[in-house]
């Protein structure tokens, strides 16, 4: 590594943009031999640094949104039960009878496989979730966000379900692509990204991808309804009775007449309520609001995000109150009414 200013050997990386995901076409990351050289180069580096910082925040927030989504799906795995999972190189087949039961972590061999089942047919829910996070946490850095509905191509994996009704079988068929939904965001730096937290059902686990790459690799064609601005937030992150009602209404509308799926709005709102509680705590104790989270240094942001995820997982046991709740795939057993311990596998 040579110093960006004096070209001598350098070991100090700029702390502002260190850790940004490196993308095709990026200039090599800057290093300095001392603080003086860094200062001398700041005018030149400033724009790049700000652009990379925005990128770091986008990746962290979306990664958190995805992790929380997985947590939410697993802890609320009450509307579909999997009996069997069979996986070949590009296909995962599952059989789901109608009973409610715990997510069967023991049937899947990797975290990736598990995630593909957790988000199977969950792209609308995932999209709503993402809008909420992007609107709530990235307001300062995302300038536009649009809804994208498209037909997939190059699926690395097809997650399929065998005991569901005809309409589902029609959606998940062997030939042609599958209809999928996600969010496209433009940052104030001009960089454009695809934000897709439910891509694991097609074998794509990364939640953020540069838009051009995503478009080339994954989109067969976009539907005409694509390209609309993302709806102004459902405001789940600032849950109050009104927005909760709105959410319940929306989820019920999505779920149609299926009684089992009526459980979704309750638990979906539960996650957000738990998050909201934690964030309100931050606001009170540390004067940290959700809106300002993205301004935190990367390390602090990461600590906060992990804290939030832990809190949501923990809170869920109070909300769901089923003896078979799992955390990170580990089954929990009740010790007494209000405490949980990790059970033996
Ligand atoms: Zn130098
Ligand atoms: Zn920098």
UniProtKB/TrEMBL annotation:
- For this UniProt record, give its keywords in alphabetical order, as a comma-separated list: Metal-binding, Zinc, Zinc-finger
Give residue ranges for domain MYND-type: 3-49
Gene Ontology terms, MF aspect: zinc ion binding
Q: Does this UniProt record's set of keywords contain Metal-binding?
A: yes
**PROSITE patterns linked:** ZF_MYND_2 (PS50865)
- Output the InterPro entries linked to this UniProt entry: Znf_MYND
Keyword NAD assigned to the entry: answer is: no
Q: What is this protein called?
A: MYND-type domain-containing protein
Source organism per UniProt? Hyaloscypha bicolor E
